[in-house]
């Protein structure tokens, strides 16, 4: 089974919580940051919507600067434990 989603990571817990409050009404969840990606603040916001790119303008509603967050596109093939987790940084 392959999961595809967008993951927002942050330099601070403040950024993660502020973003989660904005995205919660549209179905996001808070989760730990996968170790493959970062060990920054440790909290990430996951958005399952395949059309997330059109919603990323929500970040302009926070006081975060582009240096304070990163957006990743994740493909997680759980049937391939060795090579199944793939991610790429999304340019905004």
Structure notes:
The chain is mainly β and 92 residues long. It is built from one helix and five strands; from the N terminus they run E-H-E-E-E-E. A five-stranded antiparallel beta sheet has the order 2-3-1-4-5, covered by helices on one side. A hairpin with a 7-residue loop joins strand 4 and strand 5. The longest helix is centred in the first third of the chain and has 11 residues. It is globular and about 40 Å long. The termini are far apart. The model has no long low-confidence stretch (mean pLDDT 79).
Task: Choose one word for the global shape.
Answer: globular
The H/E string reads EHEEEE
Structural class estimated from helices and strands: mainly beta
Uncertain segments of ≥5 residues (pLDDT<50)?
A: none
Question: What would the average pLDDT be, to the nearest integer?
Answer: 79
Fraction of helical residues: 10-25%
Number of strands: 5
Order of strands across the widest beta sheet? 2-3-1-4-5
Total helices: the number is: 1
Give the percentage of residues in beta strands.
25-35%
Radius of gyration, CA atoms, in whole angstroms: 13 Å
| Head-to-tail CA distance between termini | 28 Å
| Sheet with most strands | 5 strands, antiparallel
Primary descriptors:
single chain; 1 helix; mainly beta; globular; five-stranded antiparallel beta sheet; 12% helix; 92 residues
List the SSEs and their pairings:
Elements: E1 2-10, H1 13-23, E2 29-32, E3 43-47, E4 69-77, E5 85-89
Antiparallel strand pairs: 1-3, 1-4, 2-3, 4-5
């Amino acid at each position: 089974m392959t999961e595809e989603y967008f993951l927002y990571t942050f330099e601070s817990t403040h950024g993660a919580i502020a973003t989660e409050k904005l995205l919660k009404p549209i179905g996001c969840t808070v989760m730990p940051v996968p170790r493959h990606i970062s060990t920054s603040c440790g909290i990430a916001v996951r958005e399952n919507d395949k059309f997330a790119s059109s919603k990323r303008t929500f970040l302009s509603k926070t006081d975060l600067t582009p240096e304070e967050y990163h957006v990743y596109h994740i493909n997680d093939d759980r049937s391939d434990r060795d090579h199944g987790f793939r991610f790429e940084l999304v340019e905004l």
